[in-house]
Amino acid sequence: MTKQAQWTTQEERGSVWAIRLIVWLALALGRRVMGVLLAPICLYFMLVPSHWQQASRSYLPRVLGRPPRFIDDWRHCRSFAVCVLDRVYLLRGRTAGLRFQVIGAQALDGRGCLLLGAHLGSFEAVRSAGHRLCEQKLSLVMFEDNARKTGAVLNAINPTLGVEIISLGRPGAMLAVRDRLDDGHLVGVLADRGLAEGKRVRLDFLGTPAWFPEGPFRMAAMLGHPVVFMVGLYRGAGCYDIVFEAIENDGDEAAMMRRYVALLERYCRQAPYNWSNFYDFWA
Hints:
It is a single chain. The chain has 283 residues and is an alpha/beta fold. It is 50% helix and 20% strand. The chain has one domain (3-274). The chain has 9 helices and 9 strands. A hairpin with a 2-residue loop joins strand 8 and strand 9 (239-247). Helix 1 (3-29) crosses helix 2 (31-47) and helix 1 (3-29) runs parallel beside helix 6. The longest helix is centred in the N-terminal third of the chain and has 27 residues, at 3-29. The chain is globular, with a radius of gyration of 19 Å. The model is unreliable at 1-8 (pLDDT under 50).
């Protein structure tokens, strides 16, 4: 094992123990108390220069159409922090105090379906609401490094969850996705971010061209199964809007990308503080 691999393993082990501590505190103190404790954490990230702060100040003027004020920074940071905290409760099945409004559930018609999400709102809220709506099994598609880290996080929060993660880049990954879809599974992928070396397309997004990965749309075009845009928007006071909206899969990956980006822009404008792509998305 290389020194880099050893360092990565040690870092991930440390992260797992930190996550377990946070989970213990969240479950012991409850959502209301933890919500109060988020305030000083958010203030720290707002006042101390960081990648989060830089990314937020790149995004907010575009989505708001004006220079952001202090209250905008606060809402953005707190929305993200609350979604992260709620992820613990959702993964542990602790949904007391959380309310979900589902919009467009008819898009999930019981067939195998490719769900295209984004780093917007809460995927765990979508997963939790979707589980209540239908009995379809869920698999997640991720690049190998992200798959390993996400698997470690999910296992640390709830070892009994049993969500299957398909690692792209491994032999047979595409066949595994096809088989799950053929078996009637929901297969989710976050389609707004890919590997830097992967093929990308530059499309207008919030008034400025940004890079989007081509891979998820090429996969959708190749497999030919129904495609649905998904998002779980945090609306405050424990409320989430769970949105499913069909994207026509006519085999034209460029057309699907444009439809996806248009939907992503629409829901960013509807719930601007839900954005969690904390890097320079337009670089």
